Amino acid sequence: MNWYLDVLKKYAVFSGRAQRAEFWYFALFNTLIGIVLVLVDMALGTYSKDAGVGLFYGLYALGVLLPGIAVGVRRLHDTSRTGWWYLLVAIPLIGALVLLVFFVQDSTPGANQYGPNPKGITA
Prior knowledge:
The protein is mainly alpha-helical and 123 residues long. It has one domain (2-104). 55% of the residues lie in helices and 3% in strands. It is built from four helices and two strands, in the order H-H-E-E-H-H. It has helices at residues 2-9, 20-44, 55-78, 94-104, and strands at residues 47-48, 53-54. A two-stranded antiparallel sheet has the order 1-2. The protein is elongated, with a radius of gyration of 16 Å. The model has no long low-confidence stretch (mean pLDDT 93).
């Protein structure tokens, strides 16, 4: 849970590096919270089939949009890639698969142009 809160504390920090644990724990808790909020929306009747989203989940998704992008950019920095690679998400399916491969890769050992290794391991 601390990884999730750390990402929220760095709400719009696009500089630096994020190790795999930070990115994937944020993704895990984000998914779990999203499922719970969809269930709450359905139970309270605030889910709209036409829009495909509920009130509570929609507000939550808007609230974590910027931190989610920021941690993705920092994760790309950790693998020595520029944050502009995140724009691959605009390419249906293929872009998401390429980003998935980038996100699961290990950190670049030692410092890179985006800062020191967050794991504290040197080359």
